[in-house]
Task: structure prediction
Amino acid sequence: MRILVLHGPNLNLLGRREPGVYGVVPLPEINQLLTQEAACLGEDSDGQPVVLDCRQSNHEGVLVDWIQEAWGQFEGLLINPGAYTHTSVALRDAIAGVALPTVEVHLSNIHRREEFRHHSYIAPVAIGQISGFGADSYLLGLRALVSHLRNGAVKN
Ligand code: DQA
Result:
């Protein structure tokens, strides 16, 4: 199973950017932790391992291009859209357009921060959102996405 992992704007600064809000784990280490987590998730029923492709961009159009190109190449999308969470109809439309099962993650709990961070354009086109657990949000998000892809949607 191939999973595209996208990090949006300013997440390349993790480790030195507002550590009190976003923690001290740098982005390469988050990607490494994700890769280890993917290995722990074992194989799909067809014997395929969980393989990640982790990318970061500060540019909305680049993220849109990557999401479009993911069509037919990846089974799922794990994304921290950064500030584009709160502004980008284009990212939302790209995810809806390719109908790629998506989990949205945030290091900080966006719902207990400034009002402008409470709204996500991505959440309505995502399976779910994990927010507030620091670097663990990514690991929890990956587990949730793989579980969803392997076992199907939770009925609620
Ligand atoms: C963030 C939350 C966003 O509001 C912010 O703009 C970010 C990071 C998070 O991971 O907590 O850049 O997505």
User: Anything to note?
Assistant: The longest helix spans residues 136-151. Residues 10, 80, 82-83, 85, 106-108, 110, 117 surround DQA (CB under 6 Å). The mean pLDDT is 96.
